[in-house]
Amino acid sequence: MVLLLRSLISGMKYFKVLCIFVNKMALKFLQKTKLFFTEKRMTTFIMLVLISWMSIWFLRFSKNYPHGDSIDYILMTEAIYNHGTPNITKKDITNYIDFLEGMNIRVEKKMVYDDLLVFHREIETDSLLFNPNKIQSKWAFILGKGEKVYTQHFWFYSVLAIPARAFLELIDGDFTKTFLITNLTLLFLAIWLVLKNKKLNYPKRLVIATLMGFSPAVWYMYWPHVELFAGVYTLLAIVYFFTDKKIRSVFILSILSLHYPPLAFLALFIIGNILYEKRGKWNIKLFKKLFIAAVWVFIPTIFSLLVFGVPNIITAQDYLSWELVSFHRFFWFFFDPNQGVILAIPLFIFVFIGFAVYDSIKRQNGIYYYLASSIVVMALFFMQMKNWNHDGEITNRYAVWIASLIVGLVIFRTFKMQSKLWMSILIVLLVASQIAVISSQAEYKKIRYSALMLHPIGEYVLINYPDLYNPDPLILSQRLNDFAYSSTDSVKVVADHQNNIKKMMVYLPAYRQLIQRGMDSLKVMDFIEHAKKFDAYGQKWFYVNESDFEKLGYNQSKDTMIAFIEKSKRKKTYQKIKRNILSSQEWQDNIKKQAKEWGISYEEALHSNIEHIINENKK
């Protein structure tokens, strides 16, 4: 027993010596590693890995498709590259089409290019002349002074794309990759600027750089659009604000406002903060710096006056309306399960609310909520947009840079937490949630039309909680296909997978369809009068939810319109598929071969194929 105890004690002594030795060796290794992995070397390593991996992956796998207003930026870039001005000539259009056809690249949205060529021919024959009192346009292209054609968008982003466009021509490359290379470069530059910002310790810089790489802006990586630029650099502006580079922050936001004017108000809020902090120390030098940083916000107005004769071409085309501004639209901008900000930064929104409640109780950290209040002011302007369901990736396009602002405020507020342990836990959760949210919803390898389809979460809410979700009618009218169960062009129907109707969205002039479906006429009229009072959008659409069916006297089993609608739609679908088959010789040959193998007539085989396609589409 004594020998056993002595052996244990001796073993423990050796183990202690071994632990001390291992600890010393580990410390030496870490010290050497620290000496080797300096901030400069670490930044270089990260950037090399990031640039090589992302560039190779996106350039190889991502699709090029002119979503949204992409053709505007594509042709404007071609114009600036070809002749140094943003006005689009006939030759700019034909040269680009020739390039695509020469590379055997499909000309997507060819009708836009064709219409623009017709537009130019009308101008050349003096059929169209510039009139300051009447805007002449085709798609998003406007006839300006001197009978020159411009897009309704500003040209700064297209200027940023010129180096990539020139590089691709130099190597005889694919011009359609111009904006992908531009967006990648803009992202890499922003991440590098964050990693080089010595006002933050390196772990914090890594956190922010990671959040940039997993922001909703990267969903727009392959789009010829300004969303990536706006989203990533709004976050960079917030980084500069909280690292005592506020003039630089104002400059970045002023540049971004060239494309998204509401961001000028965030810049104005920051100017207000600068002047407040410098009170009693104001001088000419300060105001010169602020002027140089902020003056860019006026350039689009000056340009619009020079070429169109109006201060804002978007407003002049009646795209905006103050009547659409409401708390209802503001709320659903954040929480809409089909296109809200919450789909992009779910955890950040709830953490922001938690911080706001806590800080208001403690009466501290007001600067975060001062900047956040700019969202309300900015929303007063972007909520005026009539097209609230514009083409986008997952979220509303305005949500991209609003999300970046919230991410920046939350992460810097998290950095101020007193408990290092809880701060670390929260940062891990925030970063992990963003990686999961962005990665799980991203789609770069195939083309999708997010604005024309229900988000899985949105579909779940619609079916299970129809009373709670009554969004802007444009969102559902474009996402609920006319061929959806029992829908018409005036009554959009939401049904579950068993075809149980959960909700109807009705166009006001077509309210009689509800009566035809079996609802009580007097109750319908009363319901409509009530719905008019609470029309949050003024678009003449109203919702009839599942909870309203009983009081309106609706019984789905007695709805005789359903069979009629479904039969009519089936006929239309049948004829459409038949036309597609008859327009394809290869398809017809396959059906003839099937008819011979099955021992039936060609007409019978054709009918069988059409029915099969219809039934497969229902699954």
Structure explained in plain terms:
- This protein is mainly α and 619 residues long.
- The chain is built from 29 helices and 6 strands.
- It has helices spanning 2-36, 39-61, 70-83, 90-102, 110-124, 156-160, 162-170, 178-195, 202-213, 227-241, 246-256, 263-277, 284-294, 299-307, 313-316, 327-335, 346-362, 366-372, 374-382, 398-415, 420-441, 456-464, 473-479, 512-516, 521-533, 546-549, 560-582, 585-598, 602-618; strands spanning 137-138, 141-143, 149-151, 491-495, 501-507, 541-545.
- The strands form 2 sheets. A 3-stranded antiparallel beta sheet has the order 1-2-3. A 3-stranded antiparallel beta sheet has the order 4-5-6.
- Helix 8 (178-195) runs antiparallel to helix 9, helix 12 runs antiparallel to helix 19 and helix 27 (560-582) crosses helix 29.
- The termini are far apart.
- The mean pLDDT is 88.
